[in-house]
Design brief:
mainly alpha, about 0% strand
Length: about 300
């Protein structure tokens, strides 16, 4: 029994290592694509590895209180927990993770857990703009999870289960079995809410890079910002895998996972390259209109 547990933990760590590196390479590639769209050369794809390695070797003597430094810990806990309870590759021995132990409700809690941890950490920083960042981030995350939750309810009503593994299993057998085809309304609501959950432009209101020079990139230093950068890659890749599992049939091989998640991520990149940044009220209002309305219709169709 103990040997089986150790083997599963080893598989989970290996799977986490793969998804972390995939997320870093994906983000580096995206930075290059955005730069090309804007007429710039852009940084090399491997730049995030260099930044993380440099920050992890640095130390800081600045102290803001224990909760401030627990913020990055809570953040990476949300990303790692999210990934470990969803199947990265359906049917795989070592990329199945602990998906048999959790369901989509647990996953939703992990998505919000990291943001709440960062909010608590920012509240202890003493920075005058921290409250602004917390308000913006939590407002948008809450608004984006409304259509996502409605999409989840529609999928649960369709498949009569909250297990992500069972939802993936129900989509096997070909393209026509994907929820994208069998439940297009839930897919539309989920993918529109996905834009807000990823917090790329035009939904990057929590950092407001063109407006105020504050946020985690400036308030956290040394190994703490390195930890946040590592989590950013894990969290982004985990959410891509989650949406692939829920709406696009999951993956039965690593190659399929990479192709599908890359195309899903390009949806965010395309929208960010085309549209300017929203204001807070514009972002929340948009998420609570069309995506939420589509989600409500999807629920009504499959519940009644």
């Amino acid at each position: 029994m103990m040997v089986d547990i150790l083997i599963k933990i080893g598989y989970a760590l290996a799977s986490l290592f793969v998804i972390m590196n995939y997320g870093l390479l994906l983000m580096g590639t995206t930075m290059k694509i955005i730069a090309r769209v804007q007429g710039r050369i852009g940084p090399p794809v491997w730049i995030l590895y260099a930044n993380i390695a440099r920050n992890l070797t640095m130390r800081t003597s600045i102290y803001h209180g224990i909760m401030f430094y627990l913020g990055p810990v809570f953040r990476i806990t949300g990303g790692v927990g999210l990934y470990l309870f969803i199947p990265a590759v359906y049917g795989s021995t070592w990329l199945q993770n602990f998906s048999f132990s959790g369901d989509v409700i647990l996953v939703i809690y992990f998505i919000f857990f990291g943001m709440l941890g960062m909010a608590l950490g920012a509240g202890e920083s003493g920075h005058p703009y921290s409250a602004m960042g917390v308000m913006r981030g939590l407002s948008q995350v809450t608004a984006s999870e409304v259509p996502f939750a409605l999409a989840i309810i529609a999928l649960a009503a369709q498949h009569h289960t909250l297990s992500i593994t069972n939802i993936v299993a129900a989509q096997q057998g070909g393209f026509m079995h994907w929820n994208m085809i069998t439940n297009p309304l839930a897919t539309a609501a989920g993918m529109l809410g996905f834009l807000g959950m990823m917090m790329h432009s035009p939904f990057d209101i929590h950092l407001a890079p063109q407006e105020i020079p504050v946020g985690p990139p400036t308030e956290f230093q040394s190994a703490f910002i390195g930890l946040l950068m590592t989590n950013r890659s894990i969290f982004a890749a985990a959410k891509l895998v989650l949406f692939m599992d829920l709406f696009f049939g999951g993956a039965t091989s690593i190659v399929t996972m990479i192709v599908k998640t890359f195309l899903i991520f390009m949806w965010c990149v395309f929208v960010g390259a085309v549209f300017p940044r929203f204001r807070v009220e514009q972002s929340v209002r948009w998420l609570l209109k069309a995506p939420t309305a589509i989600g409500i219709i999807a629920v009504l169709v499959y519940v009644f």
